[in-house]
């Protein structure tokens, strides 16, 4: 089953000539309309005309998340604001988010790619989609919502949180499809069990899970506890949002990336060299139809590999392997992107706190738990206990207020956190994902 059979099964030569045509047109547009791209191409001594084949893509400079931050908020937009109909944003290291804008055509294509993704996951018209991705600046909720409506399924716009109500609605409304983060699905199943409700008896037949890394072991656990087929979906707001790539239900072996809209490359993250199919490296994506904020060779920092063999489902679009990590130090905690440097700058602004800390991430009852261990001034330890409690409360509150994450602050005596030579070890991730 396909949503757009013609394009999803386009023979590779036709797909590649479409990619080249769209790539050339994107380069011409960004060169004319986005000063950043004009400068970066000029600096590299290139012009859009220098790209005459897909292999020329690798001559072009990369675009980094930092470039988006430097052009905050609208500097990389390629169309005037009158043509932007939607704005989303994702969190960044500096407290300023990364901003993306969509033209009407961008929303239209996003809706189609999400509809294609739903169908690839085995969702049909007539399904009742329980959408528990967050609605708001985060792209998850609205991205899935528009795709569900485009497909013609019934969508329940739940957003995240309020787990008891989620479970009641799923039972009463007969939800057949669940969309949320994989960890939240397990949390819901646990909560239902505590309420004496058997999740396995709900009408769900498929769950579409993304926005955080998860493992095959977690897939088995979800499929067993929720009695559904668990499908991995990939996306990032910089490129579009959810629906950049998805596993097909037939093969469940890699995520089809919609190559008529995106050109994927896998590179060595240290040297920038393009790697051969099958080799593991960092995923780089070029958007070739976006109008609002087209990105050339965007460094996703996600580590994966790619394969081009045709899939048993009939789709000709390449497949990327399940994400196995990140090439930077970004953590994803309950769907929220966090860089250790963000926590560090909060800690350093607090009186009595020493510049030695350790972030310990674990997963309890299927939810991510963050513990922030930090050394404090010797004098504080000889002080009253209530002062220490007030300090840890303040750290927890500031992290919650500024980053939106709940954590447990643990104050430790000076010189108790191990020192390392070279790059300090700031994070211990005990979630065993991979
Ligand atoms: Zn397939």
Supply the number of helical segments: 12
Largest sheet: 9 strands, mixed
Report the principal-axis shape: globular
The total strand number stands at 20
Structure notes:
A hairpin with a 2-residue loop joins strand 15 and strand 16. Helix content is 32%, strand content 25%. The longest helix is centred in the N-terminal third of the chain and has 22 residues. It has twelve helices and 20 strands. The protein is of the alpha/beta class and 434 residues long. The strands form five sheets. A nine-stranded mixed β-sheet has the order 4-3-5-6-7-8-9-14-13. A four-stranded mixed β-sheet has the order 19-18-17-20. The protein has a three-stranded antiparallel β-sheet with strand order 10-11-12. Helix 2 crosses helix 3, helix 8 packs parallel to helix 9 and helix 10 packs across helix 12. Bound molecules: zinc ion (ZN).
Which keywords apply here?
4-stranded mixed sheet, 434 residues, 12 helices, alpha/beta, 9-stranded mixed sheet, globular, binds zinc ion, 25% strand
What's the short story on this structure?
By secondary structure, this protein is α/β, with parallel strands linked by helices. It contains 12 helices and 20 strands.
Secondary-structure topology with pairs:
Blueprint: H1 5-8, H2 12-33, H3 35-43, H4 65-70, E1 84-90, E2 98-103, H5 104-120, E3 128-131, H6 139-151, E4 154-157, H7 163-173, E5 177-180, H8 182-194, E6 206-209, H9 216-226, E7 229-236, E8 241-247, E9 255-257, E10 262-267, E11 281-287, E12 298-304, E13 306-307, E14 319-320, E15 331-333, E16 336-338, H10 340-348, E17 353-364, E18 367-376, H11 378-381, H12 385-403, E19 407-412, E20 427-429
Parallel strand pairs: 3-4, 3-5, 5-6, 6-7, 17-20, 18-19
Antiparallel strand pairs: 1-2, 7-8, 8-9, 9-14, 10-11, 11-12, 13-14, 15-16, 17-18
Helix pairs in contact: 2-3, 5-6, 8-9, 10-12
């Amino acid at each position: 089953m396909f949503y757009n059979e013609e394009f999803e099964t386009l023979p590779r030569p036709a797909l590649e000539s479409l990619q080249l045509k769209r790539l050339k047109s994107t380069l011409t547009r960004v060169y004319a309309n986005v000063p950043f791209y004009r400068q970066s191409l000029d600096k590299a001594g290139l012009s859009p005309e220098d790209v005459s084949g897909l292999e020329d893509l690798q001559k072009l400079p990369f675009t980094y998340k930092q470039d988006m931050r430097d052009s905050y908020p609208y500097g990389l937009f390629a169309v005037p604001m009158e043509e932007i109909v939607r704005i989303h944003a994702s969190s960044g290291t500096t407290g300023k988010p990364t901003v993306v804008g969509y033209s009407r055509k961008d929303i239209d294509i996003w809706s189609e790619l999400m509809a294609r993704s739903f169908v690839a996951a085995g969702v049909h018209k007539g399904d009742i989609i329980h959408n528990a991705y967050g609605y708001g600046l985060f792209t998850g909720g609205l991205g899935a919502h528009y795709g569900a409506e485009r497909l013609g399924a019934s969508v329940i716009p739940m957003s995240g949180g309020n787990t008891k109500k989620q479970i009641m609605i799923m039972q009463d409304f007969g939800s057949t499809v669940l969309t949320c983060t994989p960890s939240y699905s397990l949390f819901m199943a646990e909560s239902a069990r505590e309420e004496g409700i058997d999740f396995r008896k709900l009408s769900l037949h498929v769950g579409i899970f993304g926005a955080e890394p998860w493992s095959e072991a977690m897939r088995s656990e979800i499929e067993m506890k929720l009695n559904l087929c668990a499908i991995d979906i990939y996306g990032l707001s910089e490129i579009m949002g959810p629906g950049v790539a998805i596993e097909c239900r037939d093969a469940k072996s890699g995520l089809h990336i919609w190559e008529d809209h995106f050109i994927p490359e896998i590179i060595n993250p240290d040297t920038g060299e393009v790697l051969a199919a099958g080799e593991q490296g960092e995923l780089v994506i070029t958007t070739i139809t976006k109008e609002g904020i087209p990105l050339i060779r965007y460094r996703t920092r996600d580590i994966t590999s790619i394969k081009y063999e045709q899939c048993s489902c009939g789709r000709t679009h390449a497949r990327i392997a399940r994400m196995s990590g990140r090439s930077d130090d970004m953590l994803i905690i309950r769907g929220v992107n966090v860089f250790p440097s963000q926590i560090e700058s909060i800690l350093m602004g607090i009186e009595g706190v020493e510049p030695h800390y350790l972030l310990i991430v674990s997963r309890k009852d299927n939810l991510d738990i963050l513990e922030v261990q930090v050394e404090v001034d010797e004098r504080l330890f000889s002080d009253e206990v209530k002062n220490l409690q007030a300090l840890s409360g303040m750290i927890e509150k500031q992290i919650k207020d500024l980053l939106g994450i709940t954590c447990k602050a643990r104050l430790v005596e000076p010189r108790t956190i191990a020192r390392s030579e070279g790059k300090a070890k700031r994070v211990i991730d005990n979630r065993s994902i991979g």
